Amino acid sequence: MCARGQRMLKSVLQNDRHTHVRFHRLLDAAQGRAAVRTAVVHPCDEVSLESVIEAARLKLIVPILVGPAQRIRDVATQHTFNISAFEIVDTRHSHESAAKAVEVVQSGKADALMKGSLHTDELMGAVVSRTSGLRTARRISHCFIMDVPGHASAMIITDAAVNIAPTLEEKIDIVQNAIDLAHVMGVSDVRVAILSATETINSKVVSTIEAAALCKMADRGQITGGVLDGPLALDNAISPEAAGVKNIVSPVAGKANVLVVPDLESGNMLAKSMSFLAGADAAGIVLGARVPIILTSRADALLTRIASCAVAVLVAASKHAADAIN
């Protein structure tokens, strides 16, 4: 890891714990688990390799670098990164990197995937391939874990990166994935707000109808592990005062810790608004595949990228425990 990155992470980990307390809890929990063998897809830039090296140093992951070997070594040399301990699976280009990384998982050599310097579409295309991918019976979906300054707990937003315009049936899995993630993170009281532009049902606003349907599905046991309410507007989902003004009485209104958005556009804008206007950090994870997928952005702070790895460690440990029981 470069000196700049070491100084940055040291400052965050040692001096600023009070401003990133939710993510530090995740790191503390993950470091009590076994490091996860992780196929890192196309780590061909400084940001990707820096994240890998630091996550390995913190004993969160055991990396397998999947990408053009000489290009990866050149980047490491340029930035004085030591990657001599890491296995490298050589490929010719990013598409092949994604396909090879999926093969590494299928062979049993890795229990997680991590996005490097390739487009999300390239990685997810290999993951969701019907012939060679990592699909399960569950719909694959994305979750942001938001560390919002001044907010009492971490907040999950879904789906802001994978499902563009999910159907009601797809939202069942999106909600269930988020609830399961909250439990993995140690949340015992999962309160799910199904968001729309209004808290009342309006036949002209499809998301309000779907929100009501999802809540009834939870009543009937089609969604389990959390308490749902919706439709809720963002303000009365997270603000007790706003919920009180609207006279909304429910165990979720004003206290939601999972926010389910109508579509990818609204989710992406909500998460980025929190990040760039409210100073929140957003760790990213994809669920519903055979293994957790660490989805980071080049714009993410180093702590955020490490927090994404920590979440994957907790998900993988939970999956191993469930497999052992079954």
Sequence of secondary-structure elements: HHEHEHEHEHEEHEHEHHEHEEH
Total tally of structural domains: 2
CATH class of the largest domain: Alpha Beta
The pLDDT mean sits at 92
Helix/strand-derived category reads alpha/beta
Backbone shape: globular
What is the CATH-assigned architecture of the largest domain? 3-Layer(aba) Sandwich
Helical content class:
40-55%
Radius of gyration: 20 Å
Strand content: 15-25%
Q: Termini separation (Å)?
A: 40 Å
Number of helices: 12
Strand order of the largest sheet: 3-2-1-4-11-10-5-6-9-7-8
The fold-level CATH name of the largest domain is Rossmann fold
Q: Indicate the low-confidence ranges by residue numbers.
A: 4-8
Strand tally is 11
Largest sheet: 11 strands, mixed
Can you lay out the helices and strands and say which pair or pack?
Blueprint: H1 3-15, H2 21-30, E1 36-41, H3 46-57, E2 61-67, H4 69-78, E3 87-90, H5 94-106, E4 112-115, H6 120-127, E5 141-147, E6 155-158, H7 168-184, E7 191-195, H8 206-219, E8 227-232, H9 234-238, H10 240-245, E9 258-260, H11 264-278, E10 281-287, E11 293-294, H12 302-325
Parallel strand pairs: 1-2, 1-4, 2-3, 4-11, 6-9, 7-8, 7-9
Antiparallel strand pairs: 5-6, 5-10, 10-11
Helix pairs in contact: 2-12, 3-12, 5-6
Verbal overview:
The protein is α/β, with parallel strands linked by helices and 326 residues long. The protein has 2 domains: 173 residues, 3-Layer(aba) Sandwich (Rossmann fold), CATH 3.40.50; 145 residues, Isopropylmalate Dehydrogenase (3-Layer(aba) Sandwich), CATH 3.40.718. The protein has 12 helices and 11 strands. It has an 11-stranded mixed β-sheet, sandwiched between helices. Helix 3 packs across helix 12 and helix 5 runs parallel beside helix 6. The longest helix has 24 residues. The protein is globular. About 2% of the residues have low confidence.
